[in-house]
Amino acid sequence: MQEDEAFIRRLVARDQAACRQLVRQHHGRLVAVARSLVGQAAEDVVQDAWLQAFRALPRFEGRSTLNTWLTRIVLNAAYSHHRYDRSRLTQSLDAVLEEGMPMAERFDRWGHWNDPLASWTADTPEDILGREQLARRLQQKVQELPEAQRLAWLLRDQSGLEFAEIAETLGTTPANVRVLLHRARLRLMEIINQFEEGASC
């Protein structure tokens, strides 16, 4: 979507086609972000967030993208929904940064594989994720990720936010976001590798 001034003006004027386009493009992604914090209440939280967003649109100054702006509104709505203590996120972030790297035992001290990953039979990640059992296990693993890792992964790989935008949203640095994202991806990669090696997911 081109976030030009004309499109924003159409949104502010409540142009139905522009509003439908905005919701169609962002709703699914915002529900996934909310679900990571509030579970089954995600749809309700996002509905509340849409109401807040449309009320606030006349004050949207374009300092961030609509994508980032909407994500922040959803995160704040999710925190409010459960009277969420944001210090939990900071504690989760601190714990993840202090923990050891997942799959660390598979690397030597120079960063080379001790025990290489299995050769994957699928040609593309889409082929891998298309397998129903693996897809279910990956969804479960995403929910088991430490909260800060889960949010970093959702905001980067599912929402496409830039590292600086994610850092601002999570109240951390872009470098920490990269660490969180790397660890989340390694944990998910471990599940894919187990599947390819024939272990039960």
From TrEMBL:
The keyword Transcription regulation appears for this protein: yes
A GO molecular-function descriptor: sigma factor activity
Domain RNA polymerase sigma-70 region: 22-86
Domain RNA polymerase sigma factor 70 region 4 type span(s) in chain numbering: 136-188
Keyword DNA repair attached: no
Cited InterPro entries: RNA_pol_sigma-70-like, RNA_pol_sigma-70_dom, RNA_pol_sigma70_r2, RNA_pol_sigma70_r4_t2, RNA_pol_sigma_r2, RNA_pol_sigma_r3/r4-like, WH-like_DNA-bd_sf
Keyword terms, alphabetized: Sigma factor, Transcription, Transcription regulation
Pfam family, one: Sigma70_r2
An example Gene Ontology biological process: DNA-templated transcription initiation
Domain of life: Bacteria
Family: Belongs to the sigma-70 factor family. ECF subfamily.
Protein name: RNA polymerase sigma-70 factor (ECF subfamily)
Organism: Fluviicoccus keumensis
Taxonomic lineage: Bacteria, Pseudomonadati, Pseudomonadota, Gammaproteobacteria, Moraxellales
